[in-house]
Amino acid sequence: MHPFPAVNSRAPFIWHGGDYNPEQWPRDIWDQDISLMQESHFRVPTVGVFSWVSLQPEEERFTFEWLDTILDKLANSGRLICLATPTAAQPAWMSQRYPDVLRSDDKGIRNHHGRRGNYCPTSPTYRRFAVQIAERMAERYAKHPALLIWHVCNEYGGACYCSQCATEFRNWLQKRYSSLDDLNQKWWTPFWGHTYTDWSQIEPPYANGERAIHALTLDYKRFQSDMLLQCFQLERDAIRKFSPDIPITTNMMGTYPGLDYRKWAKEVDVISWDCYPAPKDHPSDIAFLHDLNRGLRDNQPFLLMEQTPSSQNWQAVNALKRPGILRLWSYLAVAHGADAVMYFQWRRGRGGCEKMHGAVVEHSGRADTRVFREVSQLGAELEHLKDRTIGGVTHSRVAMLFDWDNWWAIEDTVGPVRDKQYIQTLRQHYAALWKQHVSVDIVFSDSDISTYDVLIAPMLYMLKPGVAERIEAFVSKGGSFIATYFTGYVNEYDLANENGYPGPLSHVLGIWNEEIDALYPEQSNKIVMNDGSGKYVCNHLCEIIHCEGATPLATYATDFYAGSPVVTRNSFGRGNAYYIASRPEQSFLDAFYAPILAEHHIAPTLTVPAGVEIAQRETAQGTVLFLLNHATDAVQIPLQSKKRFLNLLNDQTVQDTITLTQYDVAILTAIDDEKNQGAKGQ
Amino acid sequence: MHPFPAVNSRAPFIWHGGDYNPEQWPRDIWDQDISLMQESHFRVPTVGVFSWVSLQPEEERFTFEWLDTILDKLANSGRLICLATPTAAQPAWMSQRYPDVLRSDDKGIRNHHGRRGNYCPTSPTYRRFAVQIAERMAERYAKHPALLIWHVCNEYGGACYCSQCATEFRNWLQKRYSSLDDLNQKWWTPFWGHTYTDWSQIEPPYANGERAIHALTLDYKRFQSDMLLQCFQLERDAIRKFSPDIPITTNMMGTYPGLDYRKWAKEVDVISWDCYPAPKDHPSDIAFLHDLNRGLRDNQPFLLMEQTPSSQNWQAVNALKRPGILRLWSYLAVAHGADAVMYFQWRRGRGGCEKMHGAVVEHSGRADTRVFREVSQLGAELEHLKDRTIGGVTHSRVAMLFDWDNWWAIEDTVGPVRDKQYIQTLRQHYAALWKQHVSVDIVFSDSDISTYDVLIAPMLYMLKPGVAERIEAFVSKGGSFIATYFTGYVNEYDLANENGYPGPLSHVLGIWNEEIDALYPEQSNKIVMNDGSGKYVCNHLCEIIHCEGATPLATYATDFYAGSPVVTRNSFGRGNAYYIASRPEQSFLDAFYAPILAEHHIAPTLTVPAGVEIAQRETAQGTVLFLLNHATDAVQIPLQSKKRFLNLLNDQTVQDTITLTQYDVAILTAIDDEKNQGAKGQ
Amino acid sequence: MHPFPAVNSRAPFIWHGGDYNPEQWPRDIWDQDISLMQESHFRVPTVGVFSWVSLQPEEERFTFEWLDTILDKLANSGRLICLATPTAAQPAWMSQRYPDVLRSDDKGIRNHHGRRGNYCPTSPTYRRFAVQIAERMAERYAKHPALLIWHVCNEYGGACYCSQCATEFRNWLQKRYSSLDDLNQKWWTPFWGHTYTDWSQIEPPYANGERAIHALTLDYKRFQSDMLLQCFQLERDAIRKFSPDIPITTNMMGTYPGLDYRKWAKEVDVISWDCYPAPKDHPSDIAFLHDLNRGLRDNQPFLLMEQTPSSQNWQAVNALKRPGILRLWSYLAVAHGADAVMYFQWRRGRGGCEKMHGAVVEHSGRADTRVFREVSQLGAELEHLKDRTIGGVTHSRVAMLFDWDNWWAIEDTVGPVRDKQYIQTLRQHYAALWKQHVSVDIVFSDSDISTYDVLIAPMLYMLKPGVAERIEAFVSKGGSFIATYFTGYVNEYDLANENGYPGPLSHVLGIWNEEIDALYPEQSNKIVMNDGSGKYVCNHLCEIIHCEGATPLATYATDFYAGSPVVTRNSFGRGNAYYIASRPEQSFLDAFYAPILAEHHIAPTLTVPAGVEIAQRETAQGTVLFLLNHATDAVQIPLQSKKRFLNLLNDQTVQDTITLTQYDVAILTAIDDEKNQGAKGQ
């Protein structure tokens, strides 16, 4: 894995900027904005998001002049532009004249105009107009000196159930299945007498229609993800014609359930995403999301396209980011692969439903605010870092498998419990590794897993073709593979495996999963380690498994399956495959992973206290070490003896130990590395 | 009450079988199925449920060949067939070509095709096609040697609000009411100015329409129940033409709120029902449901048509049935009148929304599972029982009144509390009797109550014509009648009684109910027994009643009605009528019923420990005694001295005491009886 | 402020009566009703509510004869009539023939006929028919000797989203905004690209349409309130033509969110309202609502048009009013300005969804009920009071500002927390004053505030034009002004103030509100008084404010804003402006207001124990003093020394002290005053 070049070679530094909507403001504010941007090192405004009606107020009339003006003003003041196509909200005139651009709800009832993301992704009219505006913008601004990157549309998502979509869905299915018989078989339609006798009978999974065929529901999710992806591709290709050298992205949303971002990732030049953790999320939850985005394009650095500088507005409770958290979480992103630190939004709009969302410039317009100060200080610091982290890659020896189809299939499953907790389970395993200061790559069903030592695949309910084979190969060559309850139930059509569970993974795991018990929230069982090392609470689901080759490592403490295995290990080739048959408390996972990591000699570079996060990126100039203190107390961190480090954030030399106060961050390079880097970074 | 003959004289034993959907599976599985059925004593597969599209893939094309084949295979292997008409889910081609077959939701918006039970019960198209397929099947299979019973459609239920239903509803009303004036008067339509001036103005009680006239809501429930019943009748009559000698049933759903099963019961040859208790239900809750089904046709034995062999899938938490519970609950059914023990389902489908529902054969297809073993052992045991329980009836001296119209009226009532808890109240009273090991018959407003000693009618809010008179006669002849709060408020049109509450029961109860107070969940009052025997918590609703002839047995402890009566007894003729004016804690009911039972010399045959259930069925050969240990500890049960019993389950002779381990069951006959039975049972 | 004349000079006493629906009952009941009314001093029946179909059973046929009869019967027995137009529920024939009279839901889907308040307020058909029936009734009954007041329609409310409303909304907007550009600017439509380019593009804020423009949502609420108000005005004007001398009202619903009653108040002759507190509401919550209604027409006495004599039916739990509470709460109304004490309803209907709602005559029809007795005793007592409280006004020196637009804007705001608790906050501040026995006037953004000493404006998020200026004038002249968090954020278009918060109030408050933190329900901070007088819990929202002229009175105890001001005082001219930046526990407010009141020498006439309410009304004859014991214990209240009082309720003379038992009431006048009053009151 080699370091990557900067996303745009013209800007080989961490981009600092964010959403800017000058069209909402009178022109006298524009100059204030530019002056405040300069003051806060806000270098990369994102312009154009939602500007469609401002650029095309009538079907035949375009008004680019204001955009010309502000882009020039921004350019003249030293800004670089992230230029968005405005297609996330069509103008009212379009919905009015061409109602087919509007989405329909899950009963097939057409929406009224309004909100955003309210366009039908299969609508030929929407697609035609979206391509047209993208093309016009590309033609006009491709050569703009400040243009840094194209940002297509905004936060693609949602789903439509209109008759156009129904028609296109049938076309999509006819390409996917060799015949209607093939579809009937793979969808298991004889169940409840749902066999289709003509393609025209297939409809979307309406809320007041067909929700009993899970393969239909699943395929409809895939179809909608594909249709929106086509919208992106059409705009991208229109831009590319005029602007072949500028990278093109669209902003994603982490573990957003609606889109298979792994498939999307292949179509963008660089991943960008909007990071809005709940105020109470643990740092490891956020780290997981960054790693997911880094994984989408196989370790390529990504852009943190949006985060709030202070508070969100759409959560039930929108706490402020505490002082220092914006900086800490920004470096958390950089540590995990971000080459940009950007915000939603530059200035709070005075009206509309986001006027209470945090912004760099609040309604007061004042620069003497805590938030403006924190943004400015961070901006200065990032500027000071220059290119010294840019393109740096992460070398992980542990991988965790995530898969959107798997998630969709899990969510659709009726029984054994309603709340399946797939994402929570991923976060729980991730947290165990995070607490041991071990770097994790997020991988997918189609990823190359052969380079890792440890592969964790929580709740891999759906096994796609070839995955089991690749896992077998991985283990046989010495890898450690960890699976959990709810693994290997179905194939990619959501059809249960004919030989039961864990299906194609039975061989490598050496177990047979006979039954799955569901526990009420107030119930629990215990995991009793066979080596006497401990007992741990488990709950939610308890599978009753049998070792067919595997060795039990722990057994259930109570209930009629007391004494039967709950944790197993199967030696397979040169490696081991583990199975955890129930949902354990966190402390089990912490204890469970330690010996596995030790066996593979996986350890962090430094021994750091709890609450401190450590991460490394390998740049062209050498290793950059990130130390992030998530704790509210100051900590002392011992460094590798006899080595001197430069803290890139303040240019101080550190040796032996470094002290980090609450929420403080250090970015270190060994002195020799730093010399080179300092030279090149100019 | 004489014992009944077997449902079908060709099969004078407990039917063991369940839902089987060969059309979902390739033919190589069919032979495995038959072999596994043989192994598990799975004797009566239910075939045809939801097979419509497989039997009629096009309007003019029928494909019975596969069904011919599998029926013959099953017959050849010794199976007997429960043959279902497939009309619970119409084929997609039908919904597509004749959209009037689809249901409309409670706003009158037509559903899309999909799910099941999604047909309009008044649709002439649906009815025509349903009759046609039933007729074709009857014609073809009436003489099939393995045919045991007809199973029409599946779990009738739900409601439609389409314009066809609106029209039919008006027709139905015109038969029910002598004139529009009559309807206006009985529906109390001048309230809120809702008087109809033309029949055509009457609409279903749309969620976005008329929900203020409760008599309309009530009549619409009756109407929908009747329309679905007509669907059943049409299919039944079509079958009868060709198959006059085979019994016809449809599977019911216990206290399902949508249908008046008492009315339906008159139309079937035998009651069959699907028993899906929540995993946490108490055995007495299940016993109550079986008794309800036994009562539907006045003590005729019924078929347990469906139960899960392991877990359900549609509850929030679907715990496994613990080892032994399947057997215990199966005999619970038999003890209360079941002549069949059947499952949903034989083999788990690989796809669709029920693929996580328990089955005899799991996805693994293996026979070495706990569930398969338990099913097989139970099957063998049932086979061993032969006809020795078949047709046996239950002689109860206590009856409890349940009424669907009453339930519907209670649920519609706005005030004094939202959550009325009718079913819970029935369960609570039933549990008090169950704990005293006393058998209860569930009766209805039109039942003959004269044969009982004790009649309990919890929350009999609606009194239909003649009910009060029959209760008066019952009490005057020496019966004990127990009523509770929320009794005698309205007539069968949901019109409040003109002289207040308990209306026509005022005389027999000797009370006047002046006011009803509603308590918040955290509030309570106390029932203070006038004889000093105890104090009990009461809550939910507290009626302020006056004795007008009755004697107070207990008074309220607190609040402004402290000291006023809460429990009363009225001597009436040779009997007594009791009134309980608030919702008591369970221990009150336990204490309350003991002396009433004692007075009538109602006592169980044996004295058994708590947690053990005792039940008797009188067969042609004599008394069969069921002992079921619901406890997790072993118990010793003393038998009648000097009498020897045969345990029909293992042919062992027992005397003096019998020991039952956790969840164990014994079915005893006195030795003399047994001799006869053993002879005839061959 | 002078006393007011009686609402109708023919009835200078407290009206006692309520809703009466003779059309629901056979005529033999009518005579029973009149006899029972006489017995219970039920003097003013409200007739006609919902009688439309009974008066106009066909489009061209009117049937007033029954109404003639009953009105004459009532008049002959000494009743006076509150005569309602029946337009709250159109006849079924109208909905059937003219479907445009039906409302559409918030997705634009037309309702079916039924319920009430189900008419479109912009429908020309509805308006034409409503005017017609009002006119016919006015023409026929204007000269009826018993006619006391007109009651137009019933509980106006709800909203419609049909295409007629959409068209009228555009017309309404075109009058409100000078141009589409003006609207776009004030609605901040460039946000999310929502700029309208033609008036025809504007639609109601459909649930499945435009909900992102808060100014649209706000204007639509204003529009719907105006449209219903037009319905009222049209009926009122039709009546006025024939009945120019009889007062006209419509019954309001307290803090009903749907209508801007302050605007409506200008159009009625007298305020009337329906008082349905939750059973658990505190007396101060009810007092607040009465004061609100008294404030709607600037201290004019109002009519308590509806209250339940016993229980409601639509709450989750409908507890009975305890004995004495009906009397206590009735005098609570009178003490706060009511000149009528009326009920819903006279007699419980036998059917329909309100049959479990309390009534003077229950289903039993008996007069020997607790409720009938309490009503009768109260009726006699009220009769005894004659005119001695009528028209009396309240002189308050404390005012609290309430504003519907402000409420609407607060509710629409997305962030910083979902549950904004505007009404609860008003209640909390009101309760602090109530506990100090201090009278409060509720005022509005357009009220004259210059006459008060203390003005409290909780959560005045929206500042309408001129409000800040009037508050500045108020303070500068010596007033004390109290504001809280969430004040001064937006202007009347819901546009955030350009200089931040508290916007135009920054000057008078002397603070700048930099940030607002949101706390999870389990979190809290503390208010630490700078003078060491105490610490109080605060939660929900914590604003981080800066004194820009103000003096901090208290600081936050914890979190990163520990030590920053949470309560401030700004001396401004001769007065002070206070700011409370977080939600405090109640005890803070109790302590906070005491010195402010002391400073203004605001104190109750008498020193009374906790739980006793004191109120005064100034009549033409002098001061009437109300003492209400809300406690369950008897209390002794010391009176002003050396003065003798007459208790108007029992004509007893009291001196030195008066004892009130549980829930008891006294209405006192000083003896000299009383002499006059006794003379004139005859």
Automatic annotation (TrEMBL), chains A, B, C:
Residues 397-602 form the Beta-galactosidase trimerisation domain. Keywords: Glycosidase, Hydrolase. It holds the Pfam family Glyco_hydro_42. Coiled coil: none annotated. The keyword Hydrolase applies. Its EC number is 3.2.1.23. InterPro entries: Beta_galactosidase_C, Beta_galactosidase_Trimer, Class_I_gatase-like, GH, Glyco_hydro_42, Glyco_hydro_42_N, Glyco_hydro_b. It catalyses: Hydrolysis of terminal non-reducing beta-D-galactose residues in beta-D-galactosides. The keyword Transferase does not apply. CDD domains: A4_beta-galactosidase_middle_domain. Residues 19-384 form the Glycoside hydrolase family 42 N-terminal domain. Residues 611-669 form the Beta-galactosidase C-terminal domain. Belongs to the glycosyl hydrolase 42 family. This is Beta-galactosidase. The lineage of its organism: Bacteria, Bacillati, Chloroflexota, Ktedonobacteria, Ktedonobacterales.
